[in-house]
Design goal:
With about 270 residues, the chain is of the alpha+beta class. The chain has one domain. It contains five helices and 13 strands. It starts with a helix and ends with a strand.
């Protein structure tokens, strides 16, 4: 019944129906994200966990912290929590370039904690990598440095993903992709603009953009993980607000035991 924390984060980060806007004038300019937010994950009425996000963005800098914790039955059977942080800067052309990324995944037994620390140079290229414990290369192949050095971390990937999707809407383009590296795995994230939508968030009907995210493993995956992908990795639908904030409002994925939903439940703008 448990859902891995990395799947929670994929639903978030990475986190029906009128025609998509076709003219640039119909797409509001992209606004910086400065918020604290809570997202709740569930299957039907059964809670799975919650996530707290704090995001700051200026024309020159960005940072984000994401705290995830299991809840309900999952917390009783296999309690899990994680925290991830990223800080970075913006290039002259507006791209997001990480400076530092850290992530810690914890279970009830601290002996099974896993951490990763990635540092980048001024051009956003991977400079240093630390992962504890290090994976056995006989089980998980190491990603070659030349493949990983230009791939952003997952949280920087979220900022880039959001900007690319917004630019796609302005140009009436429906498909794009980015490659991310989490310190162990290199993956291509393919996203597709599906349609405009009306969804209910925090008790209100709001206009949203329905997008579909699929993952393609590239390197660093174990045989077990690759078998799961071969058996079928369901797409993730992520709904963004149809305004200049372009915020992730809701995500959903169909799994054998039901649809997992992650929905924005609290939101506050910060300075």
């Amino acid at each position: 019944m448990g859902l891995p924390l990395k799947r929670y984060k994929s639903l978030l980060l990475a986190l029906i129906c009128l025609p998509v806007a076709t003219a640039q004038a119909q797409v509001p300019p992209l606004e910086p994200v400065n918020m604290t937010a809570r997202y709740d994950a569930s299957v039907g009425v059964l809670p799975l966990g919650h996530m707290f996000a704090t995001v700051h963005e200026t024309p020159l800098h960005y940072d984000m912290e994401l705290n995830t914790k299991s809840q309900g039955l999952v917390d009783m059977i296999a309690p899990m929590k994680s925290i991830a942080r990223v800080s970075g800067h913006r290039s002259e052309d507006g791209d997001y370039l990480a400076n530092d990324y850290t992530a810690l995944d914890s279970k009830e037994d601290s002996k099974n904690d896993k951490s990763v620390h990635l540092q980048y140079d001024g051009d956003g290229k991977l400079a240093e990598r630390e992962r504890h414990p290090e994976d056995d290369p006989a089980w998980r192949p190491a990603v070659p440095r030349e493949k990983a050095e230009n791939a952003p971390d997952p949280m920087t990937g979220f900022f880039r993903h959001r900007k690319i999707l917004h630019d796609m809407m302005a140009r009436n383009v429906r498909d794009a992709s980015i490659v991310t590296y989490d310190g162990a795995r290199l993956a291509r994230l393919n996203f597709h603009v599906v349609s405009r939508a009306r969804i209910q968030v925090m008790g209100k009907d709001v206009d949203a953009i329905n997008t579909m995210l699929t993952r393609q493993p590239m390197d660093g995956y174990t045989p077990k993980e690759l078998r799961k992908f071969a058996a079928g990795d369901p797409p993730i639908h992520v709904y963004f607000s149809a305004d200049g904030r372009f915020l992730p409002l809701m995500a959903g994925i169909e799994l054998p035991y039901g649809e997992v939903k992650i929905v924005l439940s609290k939101y506050e703008e910060i300075k």
